[in-house]
């Protein structure tokens, strides 16, 4: 199932790049899969990690499509990672911070892996690009971007304190946002 998910996500994200770069988008879901694999061996969770941005970002991919191609549980996990893009940045990020603390463990794991992968990108790009980096994002304000990543960190702290990937996430936030 994991191989099929990689194939599906590679096709779905074809032609997409990470914001402001020529890095093929698929690099990010693959990294999220690798981070999640350090926390679980559950194939459906690992597959959902690879697929986590397909409903949000890929034309024609819906919860129903993923339920048929993979399983209703995989589809539900990916839907749990998807933001409603008709809402504003502030509304979406506030809703994520409020919901992730009480979300099912697998949705939390994929959410944490997603944010850690983004933090690794920021940690790699910030020294090269400098303050211009924040212009890549919808919310161009470093303070607000930091507010969001810290909100997710605080919501997950009680359940993930002992996970090495959570500790790495906290370290990268301190390094780049404190
Ligand atoms: N750090 C980083 N992020 C990039 C890059 N390319 C794309 N992204 C994506 O950008 C999103 C954050 O961008 P914003 O402009 O702040 O927010 P938005 O797309 O949700 O409106 C993240 O999506 P998300 O995971 O759906 O949302 P989030 O919950 O992490 O904000 C992240 O995966 C990149 O090169 N570096």
Automatic annotation (TrEMBL):
It holds the Pfam family HD_4. Transmembrane segments: none annotated. InterPro entries: HD/PDEase_dom, MESH1. SUPFAM superfamilies: HD-domain/PDEase-like (SSF109604). It comes from the Bacteria. Gene3D superfamilies: Hypothetical protein af1432 (1.10.3210.10). Residues 21-128 form the HD/PDEase domain. This is Bifunctional (P)ppGpp synthetase/guanosine-3',5'-bis(Diphosphate) 3'-pyrophosphohydrolase. It comes from Faecalicatena fissicatena.
